[in-house]
Amino acid sequence: MKKIKVVSFLVLLAFVFTLTACGGNTAKNETKETKEKVFVFAKSGDPVGLDPANVTDGESIYVTQQIFETLVKYKEDNTEVIPGLAESWETSKDGLTWTFHLRKGVKFHDGTPFNAEAVKFNFDRWMDKNNPYHHGEFEYYGYMFGGYPGVIKEVKVVDEYTVQITLKTPLAPFLSNLAMPSFAISSPEAIKKYGQDYFKHPVGTGPFKFVEWKKDDRVVLERFDEYWGGKANFAKVIFRTIPDNSARLMELKSGNVDAITDINPDDVETVKNDPNLQLLLRPSMNVGYLAMNTEKKPFDNVKVRQAINHAINKKALVDAFYGGLAKPAKNPLPPSLWGYNDEIQDYEYDPAKAKALLAEAGYPNGFTTTLWAMPVARPYMPQPKQIAEAIQKDLEAVGIKAKIVTYDWATYLKKGQNGEHELYLLGWTGDNGDPDNFLYVLLDKDNAKKGSASNVAFYKNDKVHDLLIKAQQESDQTKRAEYYKEAQVIIHNDAPWVPLVHSTPPLAAKKSVKNWIPHPTGSECFFKVDKDE
Amino acid sequence: MVNYIVRRLLQLIPVLFGITFLTFMLIHFIPGDPVTVILGEHASPERAAELREQLGLNDPLYKQYLKFLNNLLHGDLGRSIITHEKVLKELATFFPATVELTLAAMFIATVVGIAAGVVAAVKQYSWFDNLSMLGALTGVSMPIFWLGLMLIYLFAQVLGWLPPSARLSIEYSVPTVTNLYLIDTLLAGNWAAFKDALAHLILPALALGTIPMSIIARMTRSSMLEVLRQDYIRTARAKGLGEAMVILKHALKNAFLPVLTVIGLQFGYLLGGAVMTETVFSWPGVGRYIYQAIMARDFPVVQGSITIIALIFVLINLIVDILYTVIDPRIRYQ
């Protein structure tokens, strides 16, 4: 009989377990905070760390964008550079000395003042491998400034609110680089206090201060009342980590979160049709492309390259693999960047014209080649294999038989750098919103060296090279934009690529969310965002 | 008995040694390293080489392995390459979440599974038997992520009874002591938060518990059927014992041994393999932690956490073996 009692007790316990749990929700509502607005934002991944200088992933940067500020920053909806913690700046004629005049009366969240010393402290920490606070890889510093210390020679405190940065060689994208979230200014006192653990205790000057980070669950931020720019609309911003795309959307529909990222292409319609939700598109700062190895026959012939440009139906790719939410690309640069040449007319989709060009080039019956497809989904190309298959069909229609080839990611990249391929799918996500970061990296002859090429079309044009170098040495943005526009015309005519798409990642929010302007760089500060209660 | 336990614990040493060696080799032999993952398209050979040097990946493999073993012996699992946090510290937050989920899942699985199995065996070929075994078959075959999404859809979205994801509503925050939220909320004396944590636990526990529940039910049924045909059951009935007594005391107790084995094994699997459930329900547990680490080739995390999980798996098996003697006094360990 004892056993029966035990079993009945267990069953009873199970019931109680379920019942109390169901009651849980009602109890929760009673204790809900009232009045103060809270913004709950759900993303697919947890931050890696919260030290802005040491992270490169979007999940971390989204959070640090709220806590930190940079000397200069990007405009609300494009990558033009405007004043941030520095109110103004000037540069010497030779482009080597940059003087920044800092904003006064700015405080870090720990109460310490923001000043020239603090700026110098941060630069020294990033630049110098032997600095006692150089904990971590400082990935973006090394990458954007060419190593440690790289192109920066010295950072000097002129007076409390003036700081002078001297470069070894001119660097046109210098300002664009400084606007990157990685070069946000941290509180020196906090870095000294937390040492190696600073990534868990971020202290900046931004509109929200850090409160709590429960790993893989949530990051809680609170309004910083002494923010120099005024008070944010939200008393709290909470980032939640909800890895599954469908579960995340359900949380939004149930009203538990205010906004989400990373929506399945199939769910876009659901969001559009829901009267309580709104769909937002993040402007693209990437490009997915098909590179043609111009060192290999028959791709050394410009007519063949132009023919392939005419043969591929980009619109169909966008509709089939991006849920219609991407822009067919006509330039290597995404349209959100200054310097984008909108006057260029894309090669229209025209298989007959493609065939005629192939005949002119001496290939009336087409040819056989290989088409390399990436093994992994990337932001600019969520389904590379399927896209390769669609391109394969387009090519077949004009007589080109392409065999699809793929390797694991690391091998794929390596073989691409070695130039072992013929047709090669790849893409690029911009770092600093500067055209140089696309055109020079991807299409200049300097970067077409076998074994380390990032110009995987191995496209070498001296005129393009001259223009890109001139643009690098010029500090006037209007002039630089002209050079880039000219370079895009030459690149268009030489057609080393088929620029395929600029993807525009969809976001969803409750209808009540206002003033949210998604930024092309992938994240933005929620200072001005608001919602109706 | 004590001798036996000591001997089993000593046997752990070569087992763990083997596991660390295998894990180390496997993770290092799959293509790609953390550097490829971190740099992606931006990987210039100079940057990659520099980063490899920084991360200590240029040392020969045997040196890296010996270094890992040496640190392990000093109780140091190293720091994550990606997050720079101590692996042990990260495990201390992720592991309790999985333990809590696994305990709840196994609780549901055991109670329901055994009860269903016993009734199905006693009433063999009845509608209950057919129905529950059909249910068990479905349960074993159902993809967890699909079941999870359906549970969320029904109980969270349509009925609105239970929260769809996470461990605690954002309104609540309790000081971390054990990282088992049911305990932490009670320690904080926050009754509302406790109920909230419990509510968050139900759906994922149900999803995770379905497969072991089905396996336990089927195991209990077949084991019970075998025992019920034994002579001593006939004898017990002939003695005039009540049916409940016959089934629970004589049959179930004897049929329990294989069931216990299954429970022990399932428990171990759940501890390491709740990746799907943890993903669907945004449960910040160790399964997803390891999965992400493998994808990022975060070597110290993969090595460290798999070693710890293996250790626990082996310990659970030991406990099960000891429990055998409690349930079946005929079993003696020398």
From TrEMBL, chain A:
Where mainly found? membrane
S-adenosyl-L-methionine listed as a keyword: no
Recorded hits in CDD domains, A to Z, give: PBP2_DppA_like
Query: How is this protein annotated for GO cellular component?
Result: ATP-binding cassette (ABC) transporter complex; periplasmic space
Q: Which residues form the signal peptide?
A: 1-23
Keyword vocabulary terms for this entry: Signal, Transport
The protein's topology relative to the membrane is:
Lipid-anchor
GO BP terms: namely:
peptide transport
| Compartment list | Cell membrane
Q: Does the keyword Protein transport apply?
A: no
Record-linked InterPro entries: Peptide/Ni-bd, SBP_5, SBP_5_CS, SBP_5_dom
GO MF annotations in UniProt: peptide transmembrane transporter activity
Q: Where is the Solute-binding protein family domain?
A: 80-448
Q: Give the family, as the similarity comment puts it.
A: Belongs to the bacterial solute-binding protein 5 family.
Give the protein name, as stated in the record. ABC transporter substrate-binding protein
Q: Which organism is it from?
A: Carboxydothermus islandicus
Automatic annotation (TrEMBL), chain B:
Q: What Pfam families does the record point to?
A: BPD_transp_1, BPD_transp_1_N
Which Gene Ontology cellular-component terms appear in the entry?
plasma membrane
Kindly list the places in or outside the cell where this protein is found, as annotated in its UniProt entry.
Answer: Cell membrane
Q: Which InterPro entries match?
A: BPD_transp_1_N, MetI-like, MetI-like_sf
Q: Where are the transmembrane segments?
A: 12-30, 101-122, 134-156, 197-217, 255-276, 305-327
Topology relative to the membrane, per the entry? Multi-pass membrane protein
The answer to whether UniProt assigns keyword Transport to this entry is yes
Question: Which protein family is named in the record?
Answer: Belongs to the binding-protein-dependent transport system permease family.
Q: What is this protein called?
A: Peptide ABC transporter permease
Give the organism, scientific name. Carboxydothermus islandicus
